[in-house]
Amino acid sequence: MSRRRPSPQGRQPRRPRRRSLLAGMPQFPLATLVEWVLAGRLLAELQEQLFAMLSPSGQACWEHWLQTQEVLWLQGRMARQLSESEQGTLCGMREIEEVLRLLERRCQQAMASQATLLVYFTEPEIHQIRWLLGLVESFLRRSCRGLKARDLPLELRVGRSLLRRLGRTLRDQPRRESLN
């Protein structure tokens, strides 16, 4: 026969106390507003370079999308005339445009709050931005592979490391929040 004390009626069993792993430590800073503005400028410059590489019909298709914002724009008559690589470039440019708009909104919110100059994102936005930053960083790495570092413009030399750092910051943000 076991010798357990009967618990008083209505009393819940005792739960172990949860302690923060980071108690007493300063919060991890997220990327600042300036870094996101620089990333936005880099993405906008990359989008301009990609636009210049498109054929005239690809440029017309892009301008049409900017005006109409159609969801099925790559299934239209204009887009079907483009090569597969140009269609892929246009899809990438659309993703860059969506992230640029998101960054602009979030940066304006951070500037309006004036309490902190940190930029915060929701979970789905984090995944979208991380994916795009990784895509752009690998594109920059491939396109700059044959060039020497001193031949690259400053934006591209600094841009790759900035994009990598921002991607790591976004990757680690949910982990840090769950630890607090």
User: What is the averaged pLDDT score?
Assistant: 74
Give the helices and strands as they follow along the chain. HHHHHH
Compute the number of helices: 6
Gross morphology is extended
Strand content: under 5%
- For the terminal residues, how far apart are their CA atoms? 44 Å
Domain module count: 1
Radius of gyration: 24 Å
Uncertain regions: pLDDT < 50 for 5+ in a row? 18-29
**Sheet of most strands:** none
User: What is the helix content?
Assistant: 55-70%
- Oligomeric state of the chains in view: single chain
Describe the structure.
α1 packs antiparallel against α4, α1 crosses α6 and α4 crosses α5. The protein has one domain. Helices cover 64% and strands 0% of the residues. By secondary structure, it is mostly helical. About 7% of the residues have low confidence.
